[in-house]
Design brief:
Structural class: alpha/beta
Largest sheet: 4 strands, mixed
Strand content: 5-15%
Shape: elongated
Length: about 300
């Protein structure tokens, strides 16, 4: 729940809307938001602690952060960070900076690289950030510095707070000594995506334990096999959204974890114990259609029911 809020925003009314998002941009290019209210409230310090403690206790990571931000956050120099246009979260800034990246094949019919309006937009942005205007010789230099300012210079104080939060949780020291660990603490978004095979590989399926059946009045093993088969079929045919809903209903987060246990019980509705990664499925389903319709209705409640219907 904590990491979900960190990635999707907090419901804090700071006069800038109903939600407060700490990271903005597109997947794998997220950067800290430049809100001064959030910065002055030390929310990025809190975010660093949240990320660190989630890592230490085997919780979900913050996926999709820009490699340039991770590089500086891990102790690298801003001058050596690799920045791309996709790292610029503000679309207006990105479109203006992108004009400088036009190659020779993209020139207009008159042969001019940039129109007067384009030059005026670039110069206006450069002057607002205390950079020199565009000339015939500084195009590449200006492109690099505009990217540097848009992605790193405007977020350096946020990055410092994140680093301090990681220090408070003793994770930054690990990142400083082992830079390769950064890909584990801040994985790519593609690594956070669910796939049927990854989910199936982490499931502990019901087994035939006759003594427990007699003691706890559990359904017969043949029934367990039927319900487990329905679940396997659902996982193999579900789309990305349905898989994430299922995993979140199961373990409380959208990323599969080890030892995701399935139990078939006498009950009316599917339920879960997210802390113990246990999914309890009723034994009364006799058709796959009945099973999947009921399961889809239940897993859609994960945002409001914390794994319970």
């Amino acid at each position: 729940m904590v990491m979900h809020k960190l990635q999707n925003g907090f419901l804090i009314n700071l006069g800038n809307g109903s939600g407060t998002v700490l990271f903005e941009g597109q997947a794998d290019h997220l950067i800290p938001t430049t809100s001064q209210v959030l910065l002055q409230s030390d929310l990025f310090l809190m975010a660093g602690r949240m990320i660190g403690h989630s890592f230490l206790y085997g919780g979900p990571p913050l996926a999709g952060v820009s490699p340039a931000i991770i590089h500086v956050l891990s102790g690298g120099s801003p001058q050596t960070a690799t920045i791309v246009l996709e790292d610029v979260a503000d679309i207006d800034f990105r479109e203006t900076i992108q004009m400088l990246a036009i190659d020779d094949d993209s020139k207009n019919e008159k042969g001019d690289e940039l129109t007067e309006d384009q030059k005026a937009a670039i110069n206006q942005l450069a002057l607002s950030w205390d950079l020199p205007v565009l000339t015939a010789t500084n195009r590449t230099w200006l492109l690099h510095n505009l990217l540097q300012h848009a992605v790193l210079t405007r977020t350096l104080r946020q990055i410092k707070q994140l680093r301090q939060g990681l220090k408070d949780s003793m994770v930054w020291q690990l990142l400083e000594a082992r830079p390769d660990v950064a890909s584990v603490v801040f994985p790519r978004q593609s690594m956070a995506d669910c796939s049927p095979q990854v989910v199936l590989n982490n499931i502990i399926w019901p087994v035939d334990e006759k003594e427990e059946e007699e003691e706890f009045d559990e359904p017969p093993f043949s029934t367990k096999c039927r319900i487990a088969g329905y679940l396997r079929q659902f996982v193999e045919t579900a789309d990305q959204i349905q898989l994430k809903q299922l995993v979140k209903f199961w373990v409380g987060w959208e990323l599969p974890t080890k030892d995701m246990q399935v139990k078939v019980v006498q009950a009316e509705h599917p339920t879960s114990s997210t802390c113990f990664c246990i999914l309890r499925l009723p034994a009364h389903y006799t058709t796959y259609k009945q099973f999947t319709n009921h399961l889809q209705s239940c897993i859609a409640t994960s945002d409001i029911g914390f794994g319970l219907i």
